[in-house]
Amino acid sequence: MEQELIELARRIAEALERLAPPPPQPLDFNTADAFVWHPEPPRLAPVAVVSRVEIGLLKGIDRQRQILLDNTRRFAAGHPANNAMLWGARGMGKSSLVKAVHAAANFPAGRLALVEIHREDIASLPVLLELLRASERRFLVFCDDLSFEREDTDYKALKSILEGGIEGRPDNLLFYATSNRRHLMPREMIENERATAINPSEATEEKVSLSDRFGLWIGFHHCDQETFFAMVDGYAEHLRLPIGAEALHAEAVEWSVTRGARSGRVAWQFIQDLAGRLGAAAEEHSFAERRARG
Questions:
Q1: In whole angstroms, how far apart are CA 217 and each of 85, 293, 294?
Q2: What is the mean pLDDT of the chain?
Q3: Domain 29-220: top CATH class
Q4: Residue 164: what pLDDT?
Q5: Distance from first CA to last CA of the chain, Å, rounded?
Q6: For the chain, where are the alpha helices, taking DSSP H only?
């Protein structure tokens, strides 16, 4: 009976081993220049082609571009550099600049990898950093549209990573974030905290100090019409759209009025629409010519 129980236990153990998933293979960080972090199960998914805009096409943010590019190139070369917060107006190219700067700083040596972490996964940031710490490659960890609400405590994980943790930030890692808020929290939240606190100056210090831990604060502001035209002209020239400057600007103004805003995002959306219309018109014209010739 005892021998039968041992045999049964062995068969059960073998069956469980067959059902269990195979252990994950160690990731080769040289397989790609960009990855997306997934916390459950913890893994980095390689990105074959990053959706980005060429850095030369980003108009109206020359100063911001140069500051971030210089900082990133220093880091890629192994020199000290700062974590960066890109904050300000919507659609002015904050996330596009991060991706474009990574491509520019990574060429031609290929030393720098871009790792995207989603806002909802910030709490798993220590796990990600532990994984990256062991690599010889340098990493730019990027979180787009970062902000926190009243109930959030995830900011504590980020705060300890940026500064103050016992291990500190790994030397081979830099953290870039974009946000529409300068202090990563809504204004009404700050006011409510101050109104109900015994010591108003200390009530929000913990959360506001999170922004202070970014060495670089780079502001983005709404653009004027001249800058908007420069954005449109740059995109149109890049795509070689067959349209004159006067007609291009007239249509761009009409588009921006209907959208109620001028920004890099609005300029790109206009160019996408225009390119589609011009392409469709060219196809119709070509078809009409072929039909006329019989």
A1: 5, 62, 64
A2: 82
A3: alpha beta
A4: 54
A5: 92
A6: 2-19, 62-76, 94-106, 125-133, 155-162, 187-196, 200-203, 205-212, 225-239, 245-259, 264-292
